[in-house]
Amino acid sequence: MDTDEVARLRIALARTARWLERQSTAGELSRTQLSVLGTVVRLGPLGLGRLAEIEGVHPTMLSRIVAKLDDAGLLHRTPDPADRRAAHVEVTDPGLELHLRMRAERTRLLVDRLADLSPEHRDRLLAALPAIEALAGPAGGTFPT
């Protein structure tokens, strides 16, 4: 495997993600807050421990993020009835609406960008989608360390 090509892939994926993040806004929410919200939308309700594992965020930091999202009315945190020290989070209707709006906005941005590519590049990129999905791993999975 050519390490220069792998580096180019890493850079291209990171640039694309940053471009999408800069072009779409969600008020005062950070990238990490939006990521946590999206994970809870896709996989929730979730325990905070599992959510920290999926997001790769320190539990103390995750607690602060969830508190902000809870205060904003985007997530709802409830204590685990079996273990009152643990908590679960689930998305609220406004949280779901924000997530769907952001997803639609980012999809539109990507559609517009794909339309600017040559048909050959667009077809090759879309043909590579299964490989890109395999690289990203399963939803809710984590990269091995």
Automatic annotation (TrEMBL):
PROSITE patterns: HTH_MARR_2. SMART domains: HTH_MARR. Pfam families: MarR (PF01047). Residues 6-134 form the HTH marR-type domain. PANTHER family: CONSERVED PROTEIN (PTHR39515), HTH-TYPE TRANSCRIPTIONAL REGULATOR RV0880 (PTHR39515:SF2). This is MarR family transcriptional regulator.
